[in-house]
Amino acid sequence: MAGTVLLLAASPVGKGRLVDAASVLPVLAAVPPSVLSGTEAATVVELADPLEPQAVLTRLRAAAAAPGPLTVYLAGQLQLDRRQRLPHLALARTTPATVRYTALPWHWIREELRLRPAGATTLLLDLHADRETWEWLGTHPLDSGRGNAVYGRVAPPPARRGVAAPTYMRSVATILRSGYRPPLDQLHQHALARTAAEGPPPGLVLTVPGPVPGDPHAAITAAVRAGRHADADALAAHHERAARQAYGAASEEALHWAEVRADLAMFAGDPVRSCRTWLVVATTRLNAGQAADAPAVEAAADRAHHQWAQIRDASRARELGTALAELRGRVPGRRQGALDHVRQQLSRLQTQP
């Protein structure tokens, strides 16, 4: 079976840099793809100090949609945005004042991995945090999504000014360059031992166990990959109904399955149904009292907008565009001009039959 490997190293350029993340990429790139992935063959995608969060999201989305195991090697720097105090992966242009617009929100990573089968995704992380983020991590776990194996560390800010090295990831790469890939828990422990031998303690150690058997997401993903889109939606709809009955229509459990169904409609090539479902999810969250800039609300609005842009039927696009414009008035999102874009497209659609 072939796998996919995403090598991502990112940190700010300039005095805000805590770690030279990209320095580890040549070592990782020297490891055979099959060893990086743990499969017979693998496709490797490399991102070194990317500039734009949307560009990273596009590559992450493509990697998450690929069949077979996915392994993500991520070295970088965590920072909180000042508005919501949520963790982001700092990119090349990120500064403390621009985190919200120039860094990759950590919850985007979690969202893109959401529909992958349980046990099919592994993340190896070597992260450095500034002082504010380090204190935040003391009371907030770094959520990388259900069903994913996570190994690595988050290092605290250095005691004195300077740029650190991604020593944990370098240790991982050095072990793998031998051509032998030990079981992940052993690889993790060997890398931690090497890291500790080179300098200060590794910081916050990240380990997430093997996932709980019987996860329905695995069956849904298998149905999608087999082209059985109706079966996948029927299974998700069953769990959505059960969650509504048990917890209520506005519960996180019910909304999760509605979001799954919106994604399934996208996979089935039905942007109308996907857009409409995302609009309902966003509106339900807002009506339940969630803030317009809450990550789940923004994500739903952004996905509704993206799916709306894929609709080719002018009458359906006009119908949903009106609702989207109303939503964008309440949830402008992170991309400037989103509401103006909807209005301009609606104006153009008025001239089409």
Summarize the SSE layout with pairings.
Blueprint: E1 2-10, H1 25-29, H2 33-37, E2 41-48, H3 53-65, E3 70-80, E4 87-89, H4 99-102, E5 104-105, H5 106-112, E6 121-129, H6 131-137, E7 149-155, H7 167-176, H8 184-198, E8 204-208, H9 216-225, H10 229-247, H11 252-267, H12 271-287, H13 295-308, H14 314-330, H15 338-349
Parallel strand pairs: 1-2, 1-3, 3-6, 6-7
Antiparallel strand pairs: 3-4, 4-5, 7-8
Helix pairs in contact: 7-8, 9-10, 10-11, 11-12, 12-13, 12-14, 13-14, 14-15
Please describe the biggest sheet, giving its number of strands, its sense, and whether it closes into a barrel: 8 strands, mixed
User: Radius of gyration over alpha carbons?
Assistant: 21 Å
**What is the count of β-strands?**
8
The share of residues in helices is 40-55%
Tell me what the CATH architecture of the largest domain is.
Answer: 3-Layer(aba) Sandwich
Low-pLDDT stretches are none
* CATH topology-level fold name of the largest domain: Rossmann fold
- Helical/strand content category: alpha/beta
Mean of residue pLDDT values: 88
Number of domains: 2
